[in-house]
Every structure is written in structure tokens, then in C-alpha cells.
Task: structure prediction
Amino acid sequence: MRIGLSTYAFFWRGAERADTPMTLETMLEETAALGGDVFQICDYPAIETFDDGRLAQLRAQAERLGIRLELGTKGVAPDHLDHYLDIGERLGVSLLRSMLYRDADRPSKEEAIRRLTSVLPRLRRQHVTLALETYEQVAVEDLMTVVESLDDSHIGVCLDPANCVAALELPEAVIARTADRVVNLHVKDFHFTRAPGWVGFQLIGCPLGQGQLPFDAMMRRVDPTSRGLSQVIEHWLPWQTDAATTCRLESEWTRHNLNFLRSHTA
Result:
């Protein structure tokens, strides 16, 4: 069972609004202290500024703690993916999560397939799996067209059904459509409810087991434990009244979610 945390589980505690922002090194230490064995450095641009020495130290720390590192970015431009594969090689990662779009770079399905085809030889050579995430900017059917057209074990899906609710795609349908191609699982629960005052709606996070994520159905269909897939916890925790309250609640959610995930996937 490969269970761990993403930098998104430290979204507020690693932010400048925290009294003492956590570094990747302190996040790694907490992941190990809580019994996690995976840490995904996801959408963390500062990693691009780390020199070879600091990357080597981070890798050594993870190995000492028994933590498997994963890396995450956005976009499928070949030069950008090559840059992250360089970083991943120094960190010893075997999984790189990305998304089809990055800022204003929004390739068509055909262009995405061409780009990823050019990157495939390096993925194979480096023994890295690229996990393309389900999210609201790209319809799941379009994402699956790209993945299935490439039809290679080194390119699959990072499943996060919560993201797709914003595009009015039902989590159950997203799970069913992607399950056979899932190579990485982002785990977060959510509430999709009317906003206060009943004007509009809000899509926000909550502790695992307390929201609308079809957790049991997802685990049965994807079967991440027997397939050896990493299950990475994230949060959508809204800012609370102050930094101390927000950071304390984020820590509580992290502990709860790890315990929930262990107890329901053992």
C-alpha cells in the first residue's frame, strides 16, 4: 500500500501567510512522521530554482526516511516536460504528474498527442510514468482520447474526480471512464453546496468520508492497492479566520485523511 501526501496537503502551512512557512524538507519529515511513504512535490515552482546540491540532499533525505518522491507540474510542451524530467532524474522519481494545459498554452487533442509522442522515448528510457490529471479545463472524454491514442504504459491518468465537478461531470462517470488507465490517485473529499445566502454554489473541501466523493466506489473500481498505485492526499481547505487557525485545521485534516485512507484500504 503506497499512501502519502502532496504539497497540496501543506497548501497553507507552506504559504507565505503562515507564521513560519514549511519547506519541502519539513514537509518530508512530517510525511514520514505520520507514516506516509509517498510525497508528491506538485505544482511547486520553487523546485525549478533548486541547484543540483539541494536536489541531491532532498533525494537523500527521502531515501533516509523511506519516502518515495513524485513530481508534478502543468503542461505538455516537450521542453517543459524535459526540464521536469531533468529534475525528476536528480530526485529519482518514477512518476511525473501533469495536465494538458499550462497557462495560455492550450494545445488541441491532436497537438497534445504529437507533443507527448515526442516525449515518450525519454519516458521509456528514464522509466518514468506521466500521469495526466482529470480536471475541469479538459473534458474527460478529450483527456481519454489523448491517453488512449498514445496507448502506452508510460502515459496514464492521475484520477481526481473532485476536480471535474466544476465542469458538471459526475465523479462516478469520471471514475468509470478513466479507471483502467489510472496510474496515480489524488484523494480529497468535497462538498458541492449552495453558497451562504442561497445565491450560487460553492465547491470546497472537507475531511475524507464527510463529503460527496464516492470513495468506496472509487477504491473498488480503481483498486489502487493491488495495482501498486500511489494514493496521494490533497486538500481544498478554505482560509479560516487567521493563519494559526487555518494551519491547525490543515494539520488536523491531514492526520484524519491519512488515518481514514489506511483504515479503508488495508
About this structure: The first strand starts at residue 2 and ends at 6. The chain has one domain: 2-265.
